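Tutorial sheet, problem 5. The four components below are modelled jointly, 1520 residues in total.
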Amino acid sequence: MKKLNIGLIGYGFMGRTHSNAYRQVSQFFDLEYQPVMKAVCGRTEDRVKAFADNWGWQSYETDWRKLIERDDIDAVDITTPNNSHCEIAKAAAEKGKMVLCEKPLALNPEQGEEMVKIVEDKGLANMVWYNYRFVPAVTLAKNLIDDDKLGKIFHYRANFLQDWTISPDLPQGGEGLWRLDAEAAGSGVTGDLLAHCIDTAIWLNGPITTVTAMTETFIKERKHNLTGEVQKVNIDDACAFLARFANGSLAIFESTRYARGHKALYTFEINGENASISWDLHDLQRLSYFDYRDESATRGWRSIHVTDSDHPYMDKWWVPGLNIGYEHTFIHGIAGFLKSLEEGQKPMHPSFRDALQTQYICDAVLKSGVSKQWEEVSGV
Amino acid sequence: MKKLNIGLIGYGFMGRTHSNAYRQVSQFFDLEYQPVMKAVCGRTEDRVKAFADNWGWQSYETDWRKLIERDDIDAVDITTPNNSHCEIAKAAAEKGKMVLCEKPLALNPEQGEEMVKIVEDKGLANMVWYNYRFVPAVTLAKNLIDDDKLGKIFHYRANFLQDWTISPDLPQGGEGLWRLDAEAAGSGVTGDLLAHCIDTAIWLNGPITTVTAMTETFIKERKHNLTGEVQKVNIDDACAFLARFANGSLAIFESTRYARGHKALYTFEINGENASISWDLHDLQRLSYFDYRDESATRGWRSIHVTDSDHPYMDKWWVPGLNIGYEHTFIHGIAGFLKSLEEGQKPMHPSFRDALQTQYICDAVLKSGVSKQWEEVSGV
Amino acid sequence: MKKLNIGLIGYGFMGRTHSNAYRQVSQFFDLEYQPVMKAVCGRTEDRVKAFADNWGWQSYETDWRKLIERDDIDAVDITTPNNSHCEIAKAAAEKGKMVLCEKPLALNPEQGEEMVKIVEDKGLANMVWYNYRFVPAVTLAKNLIDDDKLGKIFHYRANFLQDWTISPDLPQGGEGLWRLDAEAAGSGVTGDLLAHCIDTAIWLNGPITTVTAMTETFIKERKHNLTGEVQKVNIDDACAFLARFANGSLAIFESTRYARGHKALYTFEINGENASISWDLHDLQRLSYFDYRDESATRGWRSIHVTDSDHPYMDKWWVPGLNIGYEHTFIHGIAGFLKSLEEGQKPMHPSFRDALQTQYICDAVLKSGVSKQWEEVSGV
Amino acid sequence: MKKLNIGLIGYGFMGRTHSNAYRQVSQFFDLEYQPVMKAVCGRTEDRVKAFADNWGWQSYETDWRKLIERDDIDAVDITTPNNSHCEIAKAAAEKGKMVLCEKPLALNPEQGEEMVKIVEDKGLANMVWYNYRFVPAVTLAKNLIDDDKLGKIFHYRANFLQDWTISPDLPQGGEGLWRLDAEAAGSGVTGDLLAHCIDTAIWLNGPITTVTAMTETFIKERKHNLTGEVQKVNIDDACAFLARFANGSLAIFESTRYARGHKALYTFEINGENASISWDLHDLQRLSYFDYRDESATRGWRSIHVTDSDHPYMDKWWVPGLNIGYEHTFIHGIAGFLKSLEEGQKPMHPSFRDALQTQYICDAVLKSGVSKQWEEVSGV
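Model answer (structure tokens):
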């Protein structure tokens, strides 16, 4: 058993999901490497200490620069707001640390390119936490596509719909709300939600080449919790775009935080010549599958309850019929990363490079929202 | 084209569905026989006249005995309350008329036996309107079973749940409410609703041999609209029973008019060694089908939208994806009856004899509700 | 009772649905006017005669010009391919006939404008058969919006997905296939399917002001059944567009005939400040409704089985829980038209003028598919 | 923070779920007591040692009698086969240990009564792991009933359907299969699956007074893995029963391991005068709720995605829209038990006494399966 000493930066919502993943992975996955929860870092000492105590982090730091300098840290995990990813990742890589980074990779493609360059130049293991790839039903979708069950792909559509910012009384920015602050987040739903849809899409269906987008900020001004003042809202509340994939298929993507009735409804559907697939996060354990090659009279969408032991990841958990949840995607993610460190394993995906592709697409989408033109995706 | 002159007795809810079926069948089905809406009979002249005018019945009668004596009537269709089925059917048969009778066949097995005897002795075409057999999805279920897709059957379960009699203010009996009057209806949910479930069950899964039942009348007294007085309620508001089929499978059946939230939720499910089937009336166009022989990773319940041209009856209607409704089951029923009259065709099912089997089972169920014992089904 | 003499032109799929509607409406709706199936017109005599016999048309014509000249025709109903709508409608109006026209109104806005002008100048009753407005669940959606249950609208999304043209062996044009022939149809999914989505959308959510679209023809050449030659396919197999409504809401629309697993999946969803609505044609009897004002713990999407007697149109049919189907939308449509003829009634919708709005939007969509720019919608 | 030293007996499937619960509870629940994973006990040393290492148990034993004698153990948790529950529980209680016991409580009511007596006589904290009470959606159902949202209850129905024993090649008994061995398990689906349904039912709807049951063993002989011989199967493969609750409502219950297509489909539905509730384990995060008091036109079954922070337990986990899974029910269970130890807290439910009620009902059910009579439930 080899130990991998982890240093976690940030202890918000993602700090919790990652901490839980580190605590859980070794009980369920049989791996050569075992993560050690060495240190967590946050700026407010009493809170980061309490967090460390609760989750079993062996120590804590209040300055991330200290953390990355510690010799007893092998891998740095970044869960801070998006505007700090690049700086921290580069500094950590400079010290020779492996880097795991929350999504989106960076604020923009330029930052992303720098991040990719340094981890690749230094040959450092790296990963970006696009966790939805690791939902068993989503991985099953990937397997079905890789087995060419679908044939030529004609259509891809994905949504990420939420409804938690409809009230004009909600402030922008501040405690637990940095995702609403353009400075910290870089963008609104595009980087936060569509980035997930795009990561899955290019994993399942290959590169996107061109996009045309429409963005909107429904509530133009909100109180900013950090400044205390009513300020212009600079994030996109909603974004929809049309796209074309390199394989000739067409796509529509949409995300919003103003879709009353949807809490976190990430859905996608893929239509191929021979079969189609659809999935949604609210019922994450199910995959819908239609196969035209089924006998005509009994052809129909199959609702696959992805809990059998021959379904992806499910041999690690309970018995058929019994669900796992959201947090397990992070456990699967870190399991994959640890596995990739074993001798002879392939590198982990999604890597920084993979996530950079998503960054290029987000960038083209945001650009198109302003230019009102079709935009080519860079880096394809 | 041969004409079949129809005389309809009764012009309530079922009088409407049958009239509609007679009006519609020839436009959609290519048959040797065409029904002619010769006469309708009801006791209240102005109302039966208005009904005849509305639906295109060529004449009307106010005494059913007159109707069955008319030489220009080939077939008598009975839609009056249950307590009149036997008398009318026997009299019509005596005159040599074909007889179509609403379900349940009769008030009890004795009446049913007499009815079967006379139509069979006289060789008269006959049918009972258990219309749910003719839902395309239900017929598809029958076809799948006949093709032995399911293998050995282990379980059958069926419900018929309604919620329209929960209010204690609802009267029993009277205009439009004879189903709540034990004298007219014979029983409550057992004859009205479970009879449907039983008819489908024995059609799909063969004879039922023994039953044990529980019946309940939740509201013990209601105003009777005919007498104007508050009287004891003699119908069963709810009935559930366990049963065994001759083929070794087990069954549970339940019906009630006190299931808040269900308007007319007739559902059934059959579990076989290799495959299972389920259906419900609220979404009547769909059949759910699970086939264990599907590839393991993509096995799931298929939701079959039974609207393709190779699905039962659907080549007569529109195009794939477009639904038909409740009333079409009656059109399919009369189409089947007319077809059975063509030379060399097999007799129509469900016949009086088929419906008598259901009568025996209902009888055993009601008897068991009182005896609180398992009861053998007669006539098996 | 007043008679309205109908002359139907065309006896294909829509000829059937309209004939059925004329045959059925008077039995279920109590109206001052009763349609009389006076004459049907088609070019092939033996076939139009057989059609007339089957449906009860009193006479037939083989030249539509003759039909519109007949004094015994009050209203002309056009179900021929799209490229003949304008000529026939104008000629009929010229003779002072009321005009009912299948959708889309015309091949282009110019034709549509001429058609609107003449029926309005002459004060002739008119209607376009956008039948999905008359699905009870869709009308219920309209009522909920008119009652302001949703509050400010943020999002509209609609799809019309089919899968019947995926095979490259399917010919374009010819018997039953004029929808695949650009000359006859004008466009592909845009005019055939998206036109439905657009009509519903502007009825529910008001004018659309700008669009940006993407169109695709997946199979570039097909055999043309009329010429017998392999020819370039000129229709759009798929079309998706982004749009903005005048009320500030955002929309995405998509249609294709290459969505494996979907037969005729017309769906829409509307997200408002207080409530959301969704519907799909495969389960047309249900409306999904989410109301944020429900008590927090029990808030959820409600699946409304739109079959109660206080639901739109449903008092005309059966009892709660029992479904109607696709064909009923046409019966409701003609009932509405007949009602509009009664003294003091409001004009029928969708009128030619309403349908012209849809035509403008389709035109902007097709134009944007070529220009790859956002296009303003004319006539708003 | 107070420590509670746990000794776990058994390390099979339930040993895993409990170990996980002990490892997780303190990170998510803020409680006075923290469980300490002191010792685990199993008969095969290398395996129990590996189990202890994997899950973080501080020590292990190979003889349960040793474990219960250890002074450093406060609470004994029993996850061994059913036929050992009574002996171990009594011995542990004799030593003054708190006892947590897997369900069903015992092999029969006599054993159960002894177990209740000793823990109550000695005033020891106790609990039985009927974990499905702790599904957030099920707890929400309980809350709705306690708030009297449903009004008078008319009907209860529950199923627990599986399909994993259909193959005749499956052995009875042995490694991982003691549930199929009547000697170890006591009964088949009745104790294993229906016990869950019954526990929930009496929690939600009060005492059951009488039952009539039907049991079946479809495959009469199977190879026994312990003896190596083909032997008579003594467990019930399927069991269905009718029941009456003390509150006047009627019930049907069914369980089987021969329902092709269902992995672990535990479902229940309750119909009350004003509202109804339904739930199923395959989609455990959702509760269906119908409220008749909703406005008529928009009344429908609500699909509640039970993931909001004001839903039971969900404030401990992630954010709205994100699912938890099966294993979390055990975490909630132990959290409840630990909470009950805090000063002034009410005792934990389900207690041994609660579970004894379920035992009485199972006993009456099994007795009725043999007697073929209605049986009174003891102890009510």
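Marking note: Chain B has two domains: 2-129, 132-376. Full credit if you identified this.
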